[in-house]
Amino acid sequence: MTYWDKYSEFKKGKLVSLLPEKTEHMGSDGTVLKSGNRSSVLARSGYWSNRPVFEKTLLRDTTSYQSRPKPISEEIWNLITRRSDGLKDLEVLGSATDVYAVGYESLIPAYVNPEIKNTAYRVTIGSKKCKKPYEASIFNCSALSYGPLSKNFIMAINKAASKGEFYQNTGEAGISPYHFGIDLDIEDPDFEIDRFIEDLSEIPIDMLPQIGDIVWEIGNGYFGCRTKTGEFDPVKFQKIAQLPYVKMIEVKISQGMAPNKDLPMPSLTTGFAKILNVDLDTRVKLSPGHSEFSTPKELVEFIDKLRTLSGGKPVGIKMSLGRKHEFLAICKAMVKLGLPIDFITLDGMEAGTSGSARGVAGFCGVALDDAIVYVHNVLSGLNIREQVKIIASGRVFTEREIILKLARGADICATARGIMVAAGCEQQRDCYKGTCAKGIATQDKTLQNRLDPFLTAERIYSYHEITMREVTELLSIAGLTHPSQLRPHHVYKRISYTEAVPLDNVYDYIKPGQLMSKINWRLPKQYRKDWFRADIHTAF
Fold first, then answer.
1. What pLDDT, on a 0 to 100 scale, did the predictor assign at position 47?
2. Residue 383 three-state SS
3. Residues 6 or more apart from 449 whose CB is under 8 A from it?
4. Is the dihedral of CA 316, 321, 323, 324 positive or negative?
5. Which residue from 39, 148, 178, 134 is spatially nearest to 462, judged by alpha carbons?
C-alpha cells in the first residue's frame, strides 16, 4: 500500500495511525527510499509543501466541505497551516487585496526602520495591589477547555507554550493534569485531582521546567474550585492558584456556558467528573450568574479576595462588552474602593470555538474592535489605564490582527482558533459531536491517538514563532521597537474610495482623567447617559 493509499484510509477512519514512528521513506510512486521518521516521510513525499492544495482538491468531500461557510477564510487557513509546517508565506507579485475597499486598514511606514534584536516582547500585567506581576507575551493561547478537547491537544498546547514562552488559558472546564503537560490516566479509579494538585505542589519547579505558563479561567460553575453543591470553595482555589505554574487567574463573567441549562452529560466521563468536582450520575444545573457576587462592588471585592488567596497573582475578568452602564459601574467600583482589576480579557461577537449556538455567534455582543476602544477610553478616562491591562481575544490569527488590536488600545492578544488550525483543524464545525477525525475535539481514544502531542506542539510553536517574527517586521517598518509604542495614528482606515484617515479620526479617544470631572457638562457626551445610570450597588 503506497503512502497516498494509507493517507486516504486514515482520512476515512480505517487506520488509527497514519504511519508508525519509524518507517520507510516512500516516494510519490510508492518506492522505498530509506529508513526514517514520519516527518521525513511527509517531507520527501512533497506533502508539507503542497498540503493545502493536496487536502483541498483530493481529500475533502467538496459537496459537504466547500459548500459550508467557514469562519476562517481559506487564505488565513492556508497561511496558518504553512506557518505550522514551518514554511515561508511570501506574497508573490504583490497583494490581491482591494486596498481601495471601504474599511481597509493599513500600517503607515516610517522613513527609518530600526533593527529589532529582541523579539521576545513582554508586557507586565499586575496592578498596584498585585504582589506577583506576570510578564506576558503579546500573543498567547486563549481559552481551550479539556473535556470538549482531547488530552493530547491540551498537552500539545502546554508544550508549545513552554517552548514559545506564551501562556495557555485553561478554559472554564476546570484544570487537569494535561494542562501541565502531564499524561495521567484520569479514568483510573485511584485518580484524585486533589491528590494530584498536592503532589504537584511538593515537586520543586526546577524539576519540571517543561511546564508552560498557565492562566486559570473560572466560570460561574467554579469547576475545579467548587463544592459538590456548586458554591465557591476558597480552600480548593488556593491550592491550585498558588501553584507556581499558574501565573494568572481569569474570572469569566460573560460568554460562558449557557445559563439555566444542564451540563451536557454525554461529554462527562468518570475522570472528567473528578476534574469538575461533580457527580457523574447527577444532573448539574448551571447558574445564570456567579453565586459569589451580584453587583459591581461585590465583583471587585471578589477579585481582590482571589488575588489574596492566590498569593498576590494577577486576577482579571473575561467579558463580552454588554450593557455599557454595567461596565461603567464596574470601573466606578474599582476607583471608589481602590481595588483595580489587573486585566480585562475582551471577547468580541465574532469570537467562539465550538460552544456557541448558531443563532448567537456573530449576532449577540459588541465587535471586538469597538469594545477595545470603549474599554480603553473608560479606563483612561478614570486614570486607571496603566494598572488595568486589556487582552484582545477574538479573530486574532496573524501579525496584522495583532498590530490592529494593539493600535486600537489593547495590550496583548490571544487566539484559540488559530491554535486549533495550527494543530490541524479543518473547520468541519462538528466539534460538539466529539467525532473529530484530527483528534482535537474528541474523547474517543482511537481518534485522540491520531494527534501526536509532540509533533503538534512543534506545529503550534512554529505558527507562534513565525507570527512573532512577522510582528517584528511590521514594527520595524512603522519605525517602532516595541508593540507598546503602537498608537491609533499608526494605522489608517479607508472611509471612502478617495480618503483614508488615521484611527484616532475614526474613533473618539477621550483624554486621561476626563471621566473624573465633577462638572456634568464636561463629561464626554457619548458617555453621560450611561455614566449617570451606572451604580456600583445595583445587581447585574
1. 53
2. coil
3. 16, 17, 152, 439
4. positive
5. 39
- Report the b/e string of 244-281 with b at 16+ CB within 10 A: bbbbbbbbbbbbbbeeeeebeeeebeebbbbbbbbeee
Alpha-carbon gap, residue 111 to 122, rounded angstroms:
26
Q: Which letter does DSSP use for residue 323 in this model?
A: -
Other beta carbons within 10 Å of 204: 7
Helix or strand or coil: residue 129? coil
DSSP string, 332-354: HHHHHHT---SEEEEEPTT--SS
SS3 state of residue 151: helix
User: What residues does 124 pair with on adjacent strands?
Assistant: 135
pLDDT at 63: 44
Collapsing DSSP states into helix, strand and coil, what is residue 64? coil
The number of angstroms, rounded, from the C-alpha of 268 to the middle of its chain's C-alpha atoms is: 23
Distance CA 34, CA 488 (A): 55
Q: Which three cell numbers stand for residue 402?
A: 495583532
- The model's pLDDT over 96-112, given as tens digits with 9 standing for 90+, comes to 889 999 999 999 999 99
Cβ neighbors of 294 (< 8 A, separation 6 or more) are 539, 540
- d(C-alpha 91, C-alpha 283), whole Å: 53
Considering only CA atoms, which of 110, 91, 105, 240 is closest in space to residue 170?
240
Q: Where are the alpha helices (DSSP H) in 224-367?
A: 234-241, 270-276, 296-309, 324-337
Identity (one letter) of the amino acid at 489? H
| Chain centre distance of CA 195 | 29
Q: What's the Cα-to-Cα distance from 395 to each of 72, 404, 415, 420, rounded to whole Å?
A: 8, 12, 7, 12
**DSSP codes, 23-60:** EEEE-TT--EEEEEEHHHHHHHTTTGGGHHHHIIIIIS
Distance of CA 88 to the CA centre of its chain: 24
Strands 122-125 and 105-107: unpaired
Cell representation of residue 112? 527609518
Tallying the residues shown for the chain, one arrives at: 540
Greatest distance between any 2 Cα atoms in the chain: 82
- Measure the CA–CA gap between 105 and 210, rounded to whole angstroms: 39
Residues lower than pLDDT 50 in the chain:
3-4, 6-7, 10-11, 15-41, 44, 56-57, 59-65, 256-260
- Which has the closest alpha carbon to 196: 210, 185, 209? 185
- Supply the DSSP symbol for 490: G
Separation CA 406–CA 410 (nearest Å): 5
Q: Measured in Å, how far apart are the chain's first and last C-alpha atoms?
A: 63
- Cell 501526536 belongs to which residue? 452
